[in-house]
């Protein structure tokens, strides 16, 4: 996969893409990151990429021309038409399902905005997706772009080493992930559940499933509203309610 980022502050990505799993993913060839200062595509000698808004108002607006020229340049030689993703507070709220969707693509271009926003023609005629990482406003789109790059990269084949890790993550199954324990089995009188020490894999899998459902019911009941629950899951939910 190829992930390009258009940013006014490319140095912000140096440590993120050069560390930990993202670094190893790039070294293994699973992903290719490129961060581009879209000032390089400005059509003026001062590399100015913003201007005053028509109709007046506070702040500056990012011009359409640098984004269009940069995206047209970056998509040359791409195997397929890239997903062009605008980071914007007005966008669709980012989810694990969206990360999984992006991970199926060959090429993603992330646009990082600043100031009062983008010229509307970027939104109308260039981008394929508008994404917000939450209902709050940041100084720019860089942190959102890092979130998307990280969440997508870890889903690529071979990146985590154990492909089951991504499958069982919170939200991937529609439920929050169950609790985890490691050695020692008894820490200051706080013990690991007996079932996890039993070696009985079927019982362990059932416990983990039940605990995932319990944790979701306790912490994020909204996730259960649109989920098709199995008969067993419905029974467990009734038990949780009775024992509340």
UniProtKB/TrEMBL annotation:
It comes from Halalkalibacter kiskunsagensis. Its main location: cytoplasm. This is tRNA (guanine-N(1)-)-methyltransferase. Belongs to the RNA methyltransferase TrmD family. The keyword Methyltransferase applies. CDD domains: TrmD-like (cd18080). S-adenosyl-L-methionine binds at residues 113, 133-138. GO terms for molecular function: tRNA (guanine(37)-N1)-methyltransferase activity. The keyword Transmembrane does not apply. Residues 1-225 form the tRNA methyltransferase TRMD/TRM10-type domain. HAMAP family: TrmD. Its EC number is 2.1.1.228. Specifically methylates guanosine-37 in various tRNAs. It is found in: Cytoplasm. One of its GO terms (biological process) is methylation. It catalyses: guanosine(37) in tRNA + S-adenosyl-L-methionine = N(1)-methylguanosine(37) in tRNA + S-adenosyl-L-homocysteine + H(+). PANTHER family: TRNA (GUANINE-N(1)-)-METHYLTRANSFERASE. The gene is trmD.
